[in-house]
Amino acid sequence: MRPGRRDADGLPDSPAGVAGPPEAVADPSPSGPRRAAFGFVFVTVAIDMLSVGIFVPVLPRLVADFLGGDEVAAASWYGLFGTAFALMQFVFSPVQGALSDRFGRRPVILISNFGVGIDYVVMALAPSLGWLFAGRVVSGIASASISTAFAYIADVTPVEKRAARFGMLGAAFGLGFVVGPAIGGLAGSIDPRLPFWIAAGLSLLNAGYGFFVLPESLPPGKRAPLALARANPVGALVLLRSQPQLLGLAGVWFVSQLAHFVLPTIGVLYLTFRYGWDERTIGFTMAAVGLAAVIVQGGLIGPGVRLLGERNAMLVGFSAGILGLLIEGYAPVGWIFWIGIPFTSLWGFANAAGNSLMSRRLGPSEQGRLQGANACLMGIAGLIGPGLFSQVYAMALAAPGQTVPGPGAPFFLSAGLLLVATILALRTAR
């Protein structure tokens, strides 16, 4: 068999029988409906993440109110809420990805937006804890369309610009997590159910707007038949074994996503214990983390990847992430912890570039499955990461004498995971 031509990153072009990058994308014209489409997808992802963040200040309080103020029971139930949401994302992301490969991206995204909006109305009106829990489960199912949003961007973006566009979607994640808790805190101080109404209104307005502006990105001739083997987590993960490089890049993606859970899991506990910060200072710190991520992913990834290439951008991102995590884990005083934030934000280069390299390996009819598989890996990381980092943190605090690694142990573990990801990236993306 004739060896395939290699692209600018040293990776072979799509294998025979699979549509290559020039055919894999729709008209990338930057004007008209394509620009409106990307703006809609960006806003969709931002609203999904805002809706997750907007509940952070009020959901624990609402759960406790249903339990008569029992904080211990509320903590257990709140953990169950998070686990159920992550599990639904793991199960239904490949389902929505496969459905979008068969029926197109537009109907899946719009139905998901309408579903999320209606579900938030149900949660706002929930008369009992069971109703609230059921609403959280349904929101995990409906918001799994983020994988379809990434597939949409892969459809309409030339391969050399995908890393930048994926970075922009990463900025939407950061923007939602920065703005969401702020809105939730303000609205929740008025009424703990008001944030649910705000999230519902935003989702339904966005769905209505998208009905008029969002074009279909996947032509009928490039769609794949729907099969049960494709529309489940196991079937989606099997796709990653179809090519050695794709499997290697999937390993890089999973380890990186697992490492990401260090700050969401133990960040508040760590900053309170080590520096004695109050809620206001921690809130500013978390906002700074989100803002730095928005700046990097929304403004720097595009020109950075054009300058370095996807492979080198991935390695630079991981190296910066390792340095930032080591600084944050070592930092004996709070201002040194802040020095690590810009470095960990550059970690975003690695995830955007890695996702772009993975999308190069497959044709248009499999982009939905690919993003669904990536979402599965994120779901698995979400099920493992919180328990892993919380246990490491607890063991570090229980160690006699508070010697090295001390309370920074979870950050050092995360840096070690990124080192593993770097080694895998060096071996895979040659």
TrEMBL record:
<feature type="transmembrane region" description="Helical">
    <location>
        <begin position="313"/>
        <end position="330"/>
    </location>
</feature>
<dbReference type="InterPro" id="IPR011701">
    <property type="entry name" value="MFS"/>
</dbReference>
<feature type="transmembrane region" description="Helical">
    <location>
        <begin position="36"/>
        <end position="56"/>
    </location>
</feature>
<dbReference type="InterPro" id="IPR036259">
    <property type="entry name" value="MFS_trans_sf"/>
</dbReference>
<feature type="transmembrane region" description="Helical">
    <location>
        <begin position="375"/>
        <end position="396"/>
    </location>
</feature>
<feature type="transmembrane region" description="Helical">
    <location>
        <begin position="107"/>
        <end position="127"/>
    </location>
</feature>
<feature type="region of interest" description="Disordered">
    <location>
        <begin position="1"/>
        <end position="31"/>
    </location>
</feature>
<keyword id="KW-0472">Membrane</keyword>
<feature type="transmembrane region" description="Helical">
    <location>
        <begin position="408"/>
        <end position="426"/>
    </location>
</feature>
<feature type="transmembrane region" description="Helical">
    <location>
        <begin position="166"/>
        <end position="188"/>
    </location>
</feature>
<dbReference type="InterPro" id="IPR020846">
    <property type="entry name" value="MFS_dom"/>
</dbReference>
<feature type="transmembrane region" description="Helical">
    <location>
        <begin position="336"/>
        <end position="354"/>
    </location>
</feature>
<keyword id="KW-0813">Transport</keyword>
<dbReference type="Pfam" id="PF07690">
    <property type="entry name" value="MFS_1"/>
</dbReference>
<feature type="domain" description="Major facilitator superfamily (MFS) profile">
    <location>
        <begin position="37"/>
        <end position="430"/>
    </location>
</feature>
<feature type="transmembrane region" description="Helical">
    <location>
        <begin position="76"/>
        <end position="95"/>
    </location>
</feature>
<dbReference type="InterPro" id="IPR001958">
    <property type="entry name" value="Tet-R_TetA/multi-R_MdtG-like"/>
</dbReference>
<keyword id="KW-1133">Transmembrane helix</keyword>
<feature type="transmembrane region" description="Helical">
    <location>
        <begin position="194"/>
        <end position="214"/>
    </location>
</feature>
<feature type="transmembrane region" description="Helical">
    <location>
        <begin position="246"/>
        <end position="270"/>
    </location>
</feature>
<keyword id="KW-0812">Transmembrane</keyword>
<feature type="compositionally biased region" description="Low complexity">
    <location>
        <begin position="15"/>
        <end position="28"/>
    </location>
</feature>
<dbReference type="GO" id="GO:0016020">
    <property type="term" value="C:membrane"/>
</dbReference>
<feature type="transmembrane region" description="Helical">
    <location>
        <begin position="282"/>
        <end position="301"/>
    </location>
</feature>
<feature type="transmembrane region" description="Helical">
    <location>
        <begin position="133"/>
        <end position="154"/>
    </location>
</feature>
<dbReference type="GO" id="GO:0022857">
    <property type="term" value="F:transmembrane transporter activity"/>
</dbReference>
<protein>
    <submittedName>
        <fullName>Tetracycline resistance MFS efflux pump</fullName>
    </submittedName>
</protein>
